[in-house]
Write a structure and sequence with these properties.
It holds the Pfam family YtxK_like. With about 325 residues, the chain is of the alpha/beta class. The chain is built from 11 helices and 10 strands. It has 2 domains: about 5-85, DNA polymerase, domain 1 (Orthogonal Bundle); about 100-325, 3-Layer(aba) Sandwich (Rossmann fold), CATH 3.40.50.150. The strands form 2 sheets. It has an 8-stranded mixed beta sheet, sandwiched between helices.
Length: about 325
């Protein structure tokens, strides 16, 4: 059976990274961007040994990215990154599942206005998989921005964007510090859950904890609104327990003050090993002079993505809800 293009690209990146690892004392995830850079530039750094250079030179003749669609490139890269992340215990070293990324792109299209060019930002871009998966679904000109504090992940994100020929401006920084970024129309984020260790920086936010460390996922939602136009939308992947716990009352008050809650779509239980790790897509609109809350928020529990009949029924209900929502604006 002939390899698919996705498998071919994965194999190319995997074999190139493994070969380079024979001489470079770097992790697999650090080697992948180096392999991706060689594929993108079609050039091999002179400092590599003759053995590596000859090997990579031969490999460059075996693949042409011009034959690939963006989604094929993204999925091939994703397979290689998943190999490198296998067994990782670091929460930030996780990839948003494809089915969720595609569904978030579908929801984003539902709330888009008629602008020819839109601006979108992911403040926790990671490897860039969610951001590029969503951008690939948008049939408009897109100005895309991403940020992450983890240099390895950001190098992978840059590789992801370059090999897909998708223009994204990345910031390597703590996303809870100030950005040189004009307000955007949409923010998407797979929010990392946990405490933010910098209490001094956290004190700049409304959602700072009254005592002890603040929740990073709360602060990141506030920061997203700080860089969002009035009337803009945020799509956040949140833990199902977000509105419970010791700082939930403060979060409720903040959201009531600053946003219209458009919807909460709970992801299928089957996606998670334990229901306590369950997540939902939280859809909000930043309040402005001309914005209005929906008559009734879109609240639903999604069926399994592998059940096409149930999912088609749910999509029809969501389509009808958004039809009414957008027509009443």
């Amino acid at each position: 059976m002939e390899e698919s293009k996705i498998e071919q690209l994965y194999t190319w990146l995997d074999e190139a990274a493994e070969k380079m690892g024979e001489e470079l004392d770097l992790s697999y995830l650090e080697l992948l961007p180096l392999a991706g850079r060689i594929l993108f530039d079609q050039e091999i750094p002179e400092e590599y040994s003759e053995t590596i250079r000859n090997y990579l030179s031969d490999k460059l003749t075996s693949i042409s990215l011009e034959d690939y669609k963006r989604e094929e490139v993204r999925k091939g890269i994703q397979l290689a990154i998943l190999k490198g992340m296998k067994g990782s215990t670091q929460q930030q070293h996780m990839i948003t599942p494809d089915s969720v990324a595609i569904f978030m792109g579908y929801i984003l299209e539902k709330v888009m206005d008629t602008k020819k060019t839109i601006r979108i930002f992911d403040p926790v871009a990671g490897t860039g998989n969610l951001l590029t998966a969503v951008v690939n679904q948008i049939d408009k000109d897109v100005e895309a921005y991403g940020s992450d504090v983890d240099q390895t992940l950001l190098q992978l994100a840059l590789m992801n964007a370059n090999l897909q020929h998708t223009e994204i401006e990345f910031f390597h920084q703590d996303s809870l510090r100030s950005f040189l970024l004009e307000p955007v129309d949409y923010v998407i984020a797979d929010l990392p859950v946990g405490y933010y260790p910098d209490d001094v920086q956290a004190s700049e936010f409304e959602l700072k904890a009254e005592s002890g460390h603040s929740y990073s996922h709360h602060l990141l939602m506030e920061q997203s609104l700080n860089y969002m136009n009035e009337g803009g939308y945020g799509l956040f992947l949140i833990p199902n327990f977000l509105f419970e716990g010791d700082q939930s009352a403060q979060l409720h008050a903040f959201l009531q003050k600053h946003v219209h809650v458009v919807g909460v779509l709970q992801l299928p239980d089957s996606m998670f090993k334990n229901e306590q790790f369950g997540k939902s897509i939280f859809i909000v609109q930043k309040k402005g002079e001309s914005t209005e809350a929906p008559k009734e928020a879109l609240i639903a529990k999604l069926p399994s993505f592998s059940n096409p009949n149930s999912m088609n029924e749910m999509v029809e209900k969501i389509n009808n809800w958004f039809l009414e929502y957008t027509s009443s604006k």
